[in-house]
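Hey, quick one: can you model this chain's 3D structure?
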Amino acid sequence: MAIISVSLDDESLAALDDIKATYGLGGRSEAVRRAICAARAEAQDLTDMEGDVEGVLVVIKKDHADPWMSLIQAKHEKDIKTQLHSHLKDHKCLEVMVISSRAEDLAEMIRAIHSEGKAEYVRLVRG
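Sure thing. Here's the predicted structure for all 127 residues.
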């Protein structure tokens, strides 16, 4: 097994400890492996999408004032059938979008959201 060094901010370290506690894991290394498996499964779902896809995309943005999400939504407006925007505490925002899209276009949109690094939560619920 390889040993690596990883730098985490306080928020990520707290999240890692929460994962460890929630699943009753023996250490942080086990929590990292669990998180990697979950991320890999989510990435595989994105890669495996084919044809036309319908569902609901839920995103929590970290900063209401930052327009990055609006730019992505404008680029993919043909795929967003209905949208709900709600302000949350601590200047965060909830975006709920009903999506009807080609798999490739939706995958591009989700990758763009993740690559910004400004979403606290991204989840696609497929219909």
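One thing worth noting: Residues 81 and 98 are 5 Å apart (CA to CA).
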